[in-house]
Amino acid sequence: xxxxAASNPCPGLxxxxxxxxxxxxxxxxxxxxxxxxxxxxxxxxADRWNxxxxxxxxxxxxxxxxxxxxxSPEVYSTLQLVGLAAKNPELDHLRNVMASPTAGIDPNxxxxxxxxxxxxxxxxxxxLELAELPPKFSIGIDGGGxxxxxxxxxxxxxxxxxxxxxxxxxxxxxxxxxxxNRQFYETNVETDDCFxxxxxxTQCYLNYVQSYQKPKKPRMRDMLKDWGxxxxxxxxxxxxxxxxxxxPKAQLQPLGVHSQKQSAxxxxxxxxxxxxxxxxxxxxxxxxxxxxxxxxxxxxxWQSILLPNxxxxxxxxxxxxxxxxxxxxxxxxxxxxxxxGKPGCASSETHTQSHAxxxxxxxxxxxxIHITGCSKRCAQPSPADITLLGTTIEGIEAYSMxxxxxxxxxxxxPATELSTIAHLINTLHD
Length: 430
Description:
Layout (H helix, E strand, L loop, with lengths): L16 E3 L2 E6 L5 E2 L1 H13 L4 E4 L5 E6 L5 H9 L16 E2 L14 H12 L13 E4 L21 E5 L5 E7 L2 E9 L2 H18 L8 H16 L5 E2 L13 E4 L5 E6 L5 E3 H14 L4 E3 L5 E7 L3 H10 L11 E3 L13 H9 L8 E4 L13 E8 L2 E8 L2 E2 L5 E2 L3 H11 L2
Parallel strand pairs: 6-7, 7-8, 17-18, 18-19
Antiparallel strand pairs: 1-2, 2-5, 3-15, 4-5, 4-14, 8-9, 9-10, 10-11, 12-13, 13-16, 15-16, 19-20, 20-21, 20-22
């Protein structure tokens, strides 16, 4: 059997993305919500591919690395049946619809967006012409709760960008923002028809893509450069309402124990180092979700995982079980984001993943650090507090250090001196 869709720069399921350590396969999880049947299907995939670890991505997807075989028709059928694979392989490259991982359980949210995410995902799955859109086209729906996506957080590293995003500003209205070049552009329009707005905006963007004369598919940034925000909205066949309503700021990131809107229920946010989760740990979390929760797990855009709907009286028992799985709720375990690095990426100068784990063990407090093996700065779309940029010095792996864009050292520090890097970071924030 061969792959069912043409290869694409962005990893997917129906086509293989080659890496130095094998094939990279990404499974999209709309809204980041993983039910029991879907989680079991992921376990079956890991068993078939003899993969001991999976990784949560910064769009709340799951990815397998170093895969050595092509999925069989049976695998594709199973994943389609449980809602983890596109109904049409040609649409597989489009990014998942992003939402807050606490949708429907956040006590502060204006709107539970879960049904809207499903409605939009169904629209994408059943509209074949959308296959012409570029793979980085993305949609986000934010319910306005304490855990927000987009640019609602005061901490820029927590921002998660979508080219089209609707953020709730009241119990029946969403305000539109547009994403381009890792920035959000707030418009002055809103709507109470989330689905209708997404369809109209997407169709207008598709019309632009189809009329583009250059070989490479245009990104949203190209359209906004050509038309501007007002010009784009003027082309959209949809009646928006004018709005000066502010988009509310998010208050927290979902690690630790937090009360839900449901009485006597809480969710637990679990840190994953670099987003990695062993199959044994996933099996353990599925069991905890079945015994104490609703059988559901939620992946976050910050490469962590939530265990929702836990009876508050059972929290201490579940926390003990989480610790027994060698998992924690400590923010320091999610402090570092790292690209694939060597050996997975040919562009990387350094072994970012192993260096990140070593560095994490020497930190004395959580601070967002982005370790990247080359100047493309993959893995984190938002500015980090500290960036370590991989390079080599006479064949030796090393890192240049930056606070924002400001260099912190006069010369790169060898990767053999990660303890020195950790000391500098700890001192910088003492």
